[in-house]
Design goal:
Blueprint lengths: L2 E7 L5 H12 L4 E3 L8 E8 L6 H5 L3 E9 L1 E3 L8 E4 L6 H9 L3 E6 L7 E2 L2 E2 H6 L8 E18 L2 E10 L5 H12 L3 E11 L2 E2 L6 H5 L8 H4 L4 E4 L2 H8 L4 E2 L6 E5 L4 E9 L2 E15 L2
Parallel strand pairs: 3-12, 14-16
Antiparallel strand pairs: 1-3, 2-3, 4-11, 4-12, 5-6, 7-10, 8-9, 10-11, 12-13, 15-18, 16-17, 17-18
Length: about 290
């Protein structure tokens, strides 16, 4: 079984839990996901199956869209409402002030990752240091907030301010950290109260399947033909097929950034892209060895 499936992740489970569930239903262990979601999060979790697991890195690098709940007035150790409250503050901001703070995040900036995350420092995950009470300097990563906006009303109650944002962000962006930074622009604390990933690259939540859908057989795998529909395709002869299978660096006589090589039987051999050391050549990016196009 080779293909891609878009799963609507359930709340309360890790991404690995969801992979295990889907793998068990489909009867395969060769399955991987393309971007971790926190247990409290729901939404798009793209999974690659069989030979398509080589696509994980390709899909992971795509931009992602999220709808997130924000609560102003508290700070927790996990930067979301599931954590322990470590500080509080009074909040009293107008709609215009909140919108201004949200929109100020558009563009690139260096974002400090949460201490409760799987980022590794010296071979150890940050959340392991946090659980052991070990203080460590948190790394910062360059992220790109391509778009962000307020969605719906602002609710003020019990000393908190609650609202929802929708954002389109680069790989590696932590929404918990983004919310912390929005609150910081206002001069207060803020945490994430909910999270839905609504899109990853071309994969939308509208096209996703629940676990019950998959259990009942009410799903459809996305094949390579669909995934690579917009790629420049070259049908290889035997000589070129042999060179591609051997990972040869080729002259870029095609004039495009990426080339998908397919054999005469309709099997996908490899995806090549421009060689970074010589733009006149292309080199292997992802090798498939022969997966059915459709």
């Amino acid at each position: 079984m080779d293909g891609i499936i878009v799963v609507n992740k359930e709340e309360g489970f890790t991404s690995r839990d969801m992979v295990n569930k889907v793998g068990k239903i489909l009867g395969t262990k060769k399955i991987g996901h393309t971007g971790t979601l926190d247990p409290m999060a729901t939404g798009v979790l793209v999974m690659c199956i069989g030979k398509c697991t080589s696509l994980v890195d390709v899909i992971t690098s795509d931009y992602k869209e999220y709808v997130a709940g924000v609560r102003l007035g508290i700070l927790t150790d996990t930067l979301d409402t599931t954590g322990n409250i470590i500080d509080e503050c009074s909040v009293n901001y107008s709609r215009d002030e909140i919108i201004s703070s949200i929109e100020s995040m558009i563009g690139e900036y260096y974002q400090e990752v949460p201490k409760y995350s799987a980022v590794k420092i010296n071979g150890k995950k940050l959340y392991e240091y946090a659980r052991e009470g070990i203080e460590i300097e948190l790394p910062k990563r360059l992220v790109n907030i391509r778009s962000i906006e307020l969605v719906g009303d602002i609710d003020c109650h019990d000393g908190f301010i609650d609202f929802t944002i929708k954002c389109f962000v680069s790989k590696g962006t932590y929404i918990r950290s983004l919310i912390r930074d929005i609150a910081s622009k206002l001069g207060c604390y803020g945490v994430m109260s909910s999270l839905i990933r609504t899109r990853q690259g071309d994969f939308s939540i509208d096209d996703s399947y629940s676990i019950s859908d998959i259990e009942s057989g009410n799903y459809k795998l996305i094949n390579l033909g669909t995934f690579f529909n917009d790629k420049y395709k070259v049908i290889v002869d035997e000589d070129l097929k042999k060179a591609v299978l051997n990972g040869a660096i080729l002259d870029n006589k095609y004039g495009v950034d990426q080339v998908l090589f397919v054999d005469r039987d309709g099997l996908v051999i490899a995806l090549y892209h421009v060689y970074d050391k010589d733009n006149s050549k292309i080199k292997p990016y992802k090798m498939f060895g022969g997966i059915k196009w459709f």
